[in-house]
UniProtKB/TrEMBL annotation:
Keywords: Disulfide bond, Glycoprotein, Membrane, Repeat, Signal, Transmembrane, Transmembrane helix. Residues 1101-1254 are annotated as: Disordered. One of its GO terms (cellular component) is plasma membrane. One of its GO terms (biological process) is zymogen activation. Residues 1101-1128, 1147-1157 have a biased composition (Basic and acidic residues). Residues 1229-1246 have a biased composition (Low complexity). This is SRCR domain-containing protein.
Length: 1254
């Protein structure tokens, strides 16, 4: 379809076109016309000069071709054959009046009869010259397309301008083919005024561009932009100088086609160049010529009047500026594509020696724009070589670029200028460089740029970081690159900040002193990992200061260093032994002042400093731990408490260094950044303890590891490791190792020890969430009190793995009493006492400082048994009445994972007067709770060992007195029990148990009982001991297979099933009754309207009752009597306020009205009509009423009640709509005959009854 359109458009545009085919001008030659897709000739018949027809016809031809006036016409057979002659003649005997706009508008026969070569030739007066205007220059093979005529200059519109038309123009001007079509406005038309613009519509057969114009419509067409072209024969020119001024320097040129290079324009004799100098400066947008000189042999040095330099807003980034005669102008990006902006930016970055282009962007609106529509190929050396629209004016947005140029490249926070963290200055800011995808080749380029040789080492975390952001670009340097800016830049995909590039170049030197003291020894130097000999005059005179060792005290050769003193000190350059005034010490510091763990501190010249954790290595930790005599460094990260503060960025040691104090400590600079100081933990700092306030040699196993106490996981700890821990604590061997508590916590796993804690293997140790372990060693001992009524009063006992021991009061004093009360968590000591007793095993504590470090006496002897009374009184109760959560001091709860608590919980029930313990259970309750560990000898819960931790199973307790019984019926049915908060079934074992339950419920004896099988199972049994009378004591938390118990007592009352009422029926009846009440209320409210309707109904033609003429006369008479007595139905029923129905004849005299009514009645009687009236609340005795004196015939008359109607008080009224007009009521007929309408109220009522159709 599109191909068809492309074919048809030129044909449509060329239809009815004419042309003159000649070799020299588009206004002279053989006349041809275009028709039916083909060019043809015009026959000369009738085109003669005798009658002047040739002039008229010629005028139309010249006018329609824009060629001025007609000069002459002819039919020379031998002229204008330079083009191939068409074979067809499209016109013959043409007759124009001279006023036509086109030859096709002239008269001409349909058929042509013409011989060969008998064609018309025309010559017009116009002289047309095609040219390209380039800033006022017409012979440059580039510029704005225009025609020069005797009437003025005509420009070509950019509409439809394409390569084919551009080729035609270039060919016509002998400028080759088109090279490029610049954007409209790129070239300026200086010095010429345009009369009008035309659009070219070419068919492909034209010789001259002028022939592509449709001159009939040409001058009326609108044109906003002019066409321009650069032809292949165009020679570009430029001026190159050393100061960046593009309007001053050596004149060079190059061809537009091919890969031609810029070559100097030869000077020749100089006259031509001097004559064209102004044109060249104008062509270059450099004003006019200032001077032309010859230099370097035949080269031309041209200086124009304008001074033009291309600049950037900042060094290698920002808005693109053009400095014109010391005035700043901007380059606009209005309407430029992103690709065009990138090509322009590439040229600018290269021109200003700013490396490669990184990014382009649009700036802001300004008024001082100079260049627009910049079109660069990307191969230009300067921006001035690109095509652009030149001229001052506003910019909607400036053009901004960022070039790959570093104004400064340094290595920071290292040993010297040849090592450190890579830092570059880019766009006015300092940046770190991301180590991702960084290569050794890149490092080599950096070292070579800094004149530091090649790179020796490149790795992460060699040097401290900084506060600067990381560059958003990755660099990739190739061979032959000497500067970092020249490397390939690629946008980073991952914007997250990672490690910085750290480099040590080959020429960096590490100086150190080798000796027993940190600041006294042989001077040595290491470079690129090798120890180098010290050359003469190479050793720095400030080596002590460089090593932070103060100043040099003395220096000597190695042979004489032992006698180095002030007396024999030498300053010869051959000395290699130095003694400095200061000292350096590296230590581990912690608040506990313990060995082997803490913050690393380096004390130099009396000032201690922390070291940055980011650059610290495991190798440095091992060296420090070894120097401290604390084993090896733990490989994991330190987890203990930390102390802030660090001023040393990194530590650098020689390969020969064995003491950390002999290393070089690089101080942090103002721009350095480090968040945390380094802390180290050595294997020698590992300690073990059993965490339990009441037990000796038992408790939760914990290790001091990485500067912090950690519990040990219950799984994966070998027995050998457990024995190592017990042995280290002086607690014998392991008895058991079990899970501690019911909740998980962070613990240590993967610990392996063999006999000695210092030789434990922590290489596989890790910290994970686990169930922690409780270790019980053979040396376990616990002290406790036993008293039936108080937890903090009683005799003191000790428990170990061999049994119970009585604690001796020998050598006991108040201090130990206070310590014991505190140990028992019972407050302060009130008093203590001793009582003589005999026992085989006693526990003597008086001679030791710690009450648990007592000695066991296994000999039978008399001794004084210690009793103590503390002021503590913990309250333990249940949340409910003999049932519920265990609460200590009203707030704390008890965890259900406690040990050996059955005895104390049973005693708790008795203490609360709740009888014995039935059971305990674990509701869905979690949180902090007290864990209890009891020995089985305690009487009170508080006498057990306890601690607080997270608990997943908070315990609840049920005592016997909480039991309640219930039947599902009255004195019978399923037996239910409640003691754990909910009713649940239970099972019985005998009829005696059933008797006890019935008597307990005041229901007499049991008549029968049985157990029903339950799929859910029964968890509670009823079992009474012999002689038990209280059924509550018989409830046991024991599952049974018998099933649910059913009991029927003597007083059992069967349950009468009450059929539930039919709710739907009741609702229906209520709703129906409501509707009836509403209907009655509406009838009472609208009773007057109903009576009116009934009265109209009675006057209608309904045939419910048949009346003869005599009966009708009697009725009329009675009605008149009723009116006379004013005793109408309305008056009798208090309807005085109802308007009477107007009689249509009320304006007549009474006698006439009566007569008229009688006549109507007679007429109605004769016509066989009948009347039936239904009454509502009308007294039957109306026919016996007397006519009142003041009755009026105009009032409505109701007939008497027919005798054949029922005597009911109310009647059903049926209203019918009559479908046939023949059945109209007599009353309606009467109205029709009289021509009058009834009253308004009656009419409305009738309309309601009958409807609009009658």
């Amino acid at each position: 379809m599109w191909l068809l359109l492309l074919y048809l458009v030129p044909a449509v545009q060329a239809q009815n076109r004419i042309a003159l085919r000649g070799p020299d001008s588009p206004c002279e030659g053989r006349l041809e016309v275009y028709n039916d897709g083909e060019w043809g000739l015009v026959c000369y018949h009738g085109w003669n000069s005798e009658n002047g027809q040739d002039h008229k016809n010629g005028e139309v031809v010249c006018k329609s071709l824009g060629c001025g006036q007609h000069v002459e016409s002819g039919h020379n057979k031998d002229s204008y054959k330079n083009h191939q002659l068409p074979t067809k003649y499209w016109m013959d005997e043409v007759k124009c009046s001279g006023t036509e706009n086109n030859l096709w508008d002239c008269k001409k026969p349909r058929d042509t009869h013409c011989e060969a070569d008998n064609y018309v030739t025309v010559k017009c007066s116009e002289s047309v010259k095609l040219s390209l205007n380039m800033n006022g220059n017409m012979d440059e093979c580039a510029g704005v397309v225009q025609f020069k005529t005797t009437q003025g200059h005509v420009s070509v519109c950019n509409n439809g301008w394409n390569k084919d038309k551009a080729d035609m123009v270039c060919k016509e001007l002998n400028c080759g083919k088109h090279h490029t079509i610049p954007q409209s406005g790129t070239f300026q038309r200086y010095g010429e005024q345009i009369s009008y613009s035309v659009t070219l519509h070419c068919t492909g057969k034209e010789t001259f561009s002028w022939q592509c114009v449709d001159w009939v419509q040409a001058k009326s067409s609108k044109c906003n932009q002019e066409a321009s072209v650069i032809c292949s024969n165009y020679k570009s020119m430029r001026l190159t100088g050393d100061d960046g001024d593009v309007c001053n320097g050596t004149l060079q040129q190059k061809n537009s086609t091919g890969n031609s290079n810029w070559v100097p324009v030869p000077y020749g004799n100089g006259s031509y160049i001097k004559a064209k100098a102004d044109d060249i400066c104008s062509k270059l947008n450099c004003g006019k010529s200032s001077s032309v000189t010859q230099r370097k042999g035949s080269e031309i040095c041209l200086t124009c009047t304008d001074r033009v330099k291309v600049e950037l807003e900042y060094s290698c980034y920002g808005n693109i500026y053009v400095r014109l005669n010391d005035t700043i102008h901007t380059v606009c990006s209005d309407g430029m594509t992103e690709e065009a902006q990138r090509r322009m930016g590439k040229v600018v970055c290269q021109q200003l020696n700013c490396g490669k282009l990184l990014t382009i962007s649009q700036g802001y609106k300004v008024q001082n724009g100079l260049l627009r529509q910049v079109d660069c190929s990307g191969q230009e050396d300067t921006l001035w070589e690109c095509l652009a629209r030149y001229g001052p004016g506003p910019c909607q947005s400036t053009a901004r670029v960022s070039c790959a140029a570093f104004t400064n490249v340094t290595l920071e926070d290292g040993l010297g200028k040849c090592s450190g963290r890579l830092q570059v200055k880019f766009e006015g800011l300092d940046w770190n460089v991301n180590a991702t995808e960084w290569t050794k080749k890149n490092s080599d380029v950096v070292c070579e740029q800094l004149k530091c040789g090649k790179s020796h080492e490149t790795q992460e975390n060699l040097f401290v970081g900084s506060n600067h952001n990381q560059l958003e670009w990755n660099l990739n340097c190739s061979d032959g690159v000497s500067k970092l800016s020249q490397c390939t830049w690629t946008q980073r995909k991952d914007s997250r900040k990672k490690m910085n590039v750290n480099i040590i170049c080959e020429k960096e030197k590490l100086w150190f002193l080798q000796g027993d003291s940190s600041c006294d020894g042989k001077v040595k130097v290491e470079s690129a990992g090798k120890i180098l000999p010290i050359q003469a005059n190479e050793m720095p005179t400030d080596v002590c200061q460089w090593l932070h060792c103060g100043t040099v005290i003395c220096s000597a050769t190695t042979a004489s260093h032992a006698s180095c003193s002030r007396e024999n000190a030498t300053t010869q350059n051959t000395t290699d032994h130095v003694k400095c005034s200061g000292s350096v010490e590296v230590m581990l510091e912690n608040k506990e002042k313990e060995k082997g763990w803490g913050k690393v501190k380096v004390c130099m010249n009396g000032m201690c400093r922390g070291v940055c954790n980011d650059t610290w290595t495991k190798k440095l930790s091992d060296m420090l731990c070894e120097n401290q005599g604390s084993g090896k460094a733990l490989s994991k990260e330190y987890r203990g408490s930390t102390e802030p503060g660090q001023t040393i960025g990194s530590v650098h040691c020689s390969q020969e260094t064995r003491n950390l104090s002999h290393c070089y400590f690089a101080l942090m600079s103002a721009q350095s950044a480090c968040k945390t100081p380094v802390h180290v933990s050595c294997t020698g700092s590992v300690k073990v303890k059993l965490n339990d306030l009441r037990d000796k040699c038992a408790g939760r196993l914990e290790l001091f590891y990485l500067g912090k106490w950690h519990p040990v996981c219950a799984d994966g700890v070998s027995q050998e490791t457990q024995n190592t821990f017990c042995s280290r604590l002086g607690c014998g061997k392991v008895v058991n190792f079990s899970k501690y508590g019911a909740s998980k916590a962070e613990g240590l796993s993967g610990i392996t020890c063999a006999n000695n804690l210092s030789t434990c293997d922590f290489s596989k140790t890790k910290i994970q969430v686990c169930f922690t372990g409780h270790l019980n060693c053979s040396g376990w001992t616990r002290l406790f009190l036993t008293h039936p009524h108080s937890a903090c009063v009683g005799k003191v006992y000790a428990q170990d793995h061999n049994g119970l021991l009585k604690v001796s009061g020998e050598n006991w004093g108040p201090e130990k009493g206070y310590e014991l009360c505190k140990y028992l968590n019972c407050g302060n000591l009130r008093n203590y006492s001793e009582k003589d007793e005999n026992h085989n095993r006693t526990y003597n504590c008086g001679a030791q400082n710690d009450i648990l470090d007592c000695s066991v006496n296994n000999k039978h002897a008399q001794f004084k048994h210690l009793s103590i009374k503390c002021d503590g009184n913990p309250v333990v109760n249940l949340l409910g009445n003999c049932t519920g959560e265990v609460r200590i001091n009203q707030k704390e709860r008890m965890c259900g994972v406690s040990q050996n608590t059955g005895r104390v919980l049973n005693e708790l029930c008795h203490h609360l007067n709740c009888k014995h313990l039935i059971t305990s259970w674990f509701p869905k309750s979690k949180g902090k709770a007290q864990y209890f560990s009891c020995t089985g000898h305690e009487n009170r819960l508080w006498q057990c060992s306890s601690w607080t931790d997270n608990c997943d199973r908070v315990i609840s307790v049920a005592c016997a007195n909480s039991v309640e019984f219930n039947f599902t019926g009255k004195c019978g049915g399923e037996l239910q029990v409640r003691y754990r908060g909910n009713w649940e079934p239970l099972c019985l074992n005998s009829i005696e148990d059933a008797h006890m339950i019935c008597r307990n419920q005041n229901c007499g004896k049991a008549s029968s009982y049985k157990n029903l099988h339950s799929s859910e199972g029964v968890q509670t049994s009823f079992k009474c001991e012999k002689g038990e009378t209280d059924p509550k004591s018989c409830v046991k938390y024991e599952s049974c297979q018998e099933g649910k118990a059913l009991i029927y007592c003597e007083k059992y009352v069967p349950v009468v099933k009450v059929v539930p009422p039919n709710t739907g029926l009741i609702v229906g009846l209520v709703v129906g009754l409501l509707f009836m009440l509403v209907a009655i209320a509406i009838m009472i409210w609208q009773r007057k309207r109903f009576l009116t309707i009934l009265r109209l109904k009675s006057s209608g033609g309904e045939k419910d009752a048949e009346l003869n003429n005599k009966e009708m006369q009697d009725l009329n008479k009675k009605n008149r009597d009723m009116h006379d007595r004013k005793s109408s139905v309305f008056e009798m029923d208090d309807y005085e306020d109802v308007d009477p129905i107007m009689n249509p004849m009320e304006d007549e005299p009474k006698s006439q009205k009566l007569q008229h009514a009688e006549d109507e009645d007679d007429e109605e009687s004769r016509s066989g009509g009948s009347s039936r009236t239904q009454y509502d609340d009308v007294e039957e005795s109306s026919d016996r009423q007397q006519e009142p004196e003041n009755s009026s015939p105009a009032e409505p008359l109701l007939p008497p009640r027919p005798a054949n109607l029922l005597d009911d008080v109310s009647y059903e009224v049926e209203l019918e709509v009559l479908d046939d007009y023949d059945d109209a009521t007599p009353a309606q007929a009467a109205v029709s005959e009289s021509g009058e309408s009834p009253g308004s109220e009656a009419s409305e009522a009738a309309d309601m009854l009958v409807g609009p159709d009658g």
